[in-house]
Design goal:
mainly alpha, 158 residues
Length: 158
């Protein structure tokens, strides 16, 4: 059934469609199904970037905190353990999107906590220099800050 269209200056007129409207397609709650990709089939899995470097850096910071407490210094990880742990966590992130979300949240929280921790260490050093807390803490906090500014090489790319 063809209808006459009025001519309107400056308006493009599209010829009437000869295809039947898609009314027979099943609808979910009144919404037609998606059209899909041009090539058909399922979409290829999205490639995600590796988090191994960020995970390794976070593990190093946590490890430095363990090493600063003499009572638990023996429990600190060595570089081979940090590298192996970072690689295994990254591999799990590649296979589980939910786990990856959790790790990304921890990594984002860790960067903010790292900033707060550095500011607290600087403030504690100043307090030690003014004898508000024992002066021995100045050197201890200074070594922690030095390790934070120049973390040791792990073999894990950052």
């Amino acid at each position: 059934m063809m209808t006459q269209q009025q001519f309107v200056p400056g308006r493009k007129v599209r010829p009437p469609s000869t295809q039947e409207p898609i009314e027979d397609a099943p609808k979910r709650n009144g919404i037609p199904p998606p059209r899909g990709r041009a090539g058909g089939g399922a979409a290829a899995p999205k490639q995600t970037r590796s988090l191994e470097g960020q995970i390794g850096a976070t593990l190093i910071v946590i490890n430095m905190m363990l090493m600063s407490v003499p009572a638990i210094r023996a429990d600190a990880l060595d570089m081979n353990e940090i590298t192996a742990l970072a690689k295994s966590i990254d591999l799990q992130c590649k296979t589980s999107p939910r786990f990856r979300k959790y790790v990304e949240a921890v990594l984002q929280t860790g960067s903010g906590a790292g900033l707060l921790g550095v500011c607290l260490l600087i403030g504690a050093r100043r307090a030690a220099r003014h004898a508000i807390i024992p002066r021995d803490f100045d050197a201890a906090f200074g070594s922690i800050l030095a390790g934070t500014a120049n973390p040791p090489k792990t073999g894990v790319e950052t």
